[in-house]
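Lab notebook, bench 4. Still working through the backlog of constructs that have no structural model yet. Next entry is a single chain of 407 residues. Request: give me the structure tokens for it.
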Amino acid sequence: MYVHGIRSLFSFPGYVLLKLQLDGELAAVTLRRDGRCRLTCPHCGQRMTPSRSVWQMARDLPLGLAGTVMIHYEAIQGRCLSCHRYATVRPVGIDEHARATGRLMRYVSQLARHLPLNHIADVVPGVDETTAGRWDRKMLSASLPEPNLDNLRVLLVDEKSIRKHHSYYTLVLNGETGELLHMGPGKKKDSLLGFYDKLTTPQKQGIEAVAMDRSKAYISATQQALPDAKIVYDKFHLIANYNDVIDRVRRLEYRKADHKAKQVIVGQRFNLFRNPGNLKDHQRRDLNALLEINRNLTIAYVLKEALRDIWMQYKRHHAEHDLNWWIERARESAIKPLIIFAGILHKARDQILNYIDHPITTGPLEGFNNLIARLLHRACGYKDMNYLYLKLRQESLKRSRQIRLQE
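Model written out:
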């Protein structure tokens, strides 16, 4: 069968297209070694003498309605006249272990970025979930660059539960590009030191700030490895911590309230957490009714809005003034949960105020955690953590390129 231009689709150096057979959804392609081409040793590039030949099969990209394309090719084993080694010559682009062409494996890898592995067979018949995962992992390992550890200025550090039973992994992102730099098991000091140990002394000296939550393990590792870098406590974690404080105050007030007051307090938990601008009319009415009858919750709510204002300042001494004011008001309130939280802020004042000089948060990492959750859900979990790391690297590099294009 002759089709115009079909030879260019199956153009492999040193091989000629012998025939193409189409039978519905199956296409069979036969390639024969071109006798005019010298047999070259893949080790040293010198001439080889053929000793024997065998016919082998490999899958290729779908061709039109033919979802399954099989290439039948002549593989020739020869002996090098120079290095005296034996080698088997196949068409360039065919993976002898996968029994498939590299372009098919790349296509499956591209599909795996958007489809669950068990759905790829719907697009490429005969490629099961295990094979698709193996090819995807191989293509990602070959194509993804190593993490760029040069010119790092800002790091984002957080932990994520990957598996059941709280199996945590430590994640490190480039705070400027969003590139995933590290994913290590655990959330202890050694989990982060494993990343810092990869850095050279000049690379460590270039890091100006590291954003994280108040994890003692991460703080200790950063202070040990990066003594000159500023630690910036993530403001969203602190605000979330304060929401827990408000909830403790709410529960205390509910327990000591009479029946009528309890009817006002019940169901107000999220109204107390929401930003005032996000409240609907009925939610605002319910919240106002609560604040009119309960002094302690009113103080806790007002201080919540004042706490946010600390990170709105442009100058460090202004933010320090607001922080001191907040701590004093919390201590004067005589509300135990607020007093305890004020003590936490007092100890963390330097790490909080560092935000003014380095306005960074782990917000991009929280978004990255959502991406991890989607990948885990789509794949029904990952047994191979190295494979998950490659998938996350793939997504982070895409985001990094988008950021550079926007700049």
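Notes after review: Residues 97-143 form one domain. Residues 17 and 31 are 5 Å apart (CA to CA). Flag for follow-up if needed.
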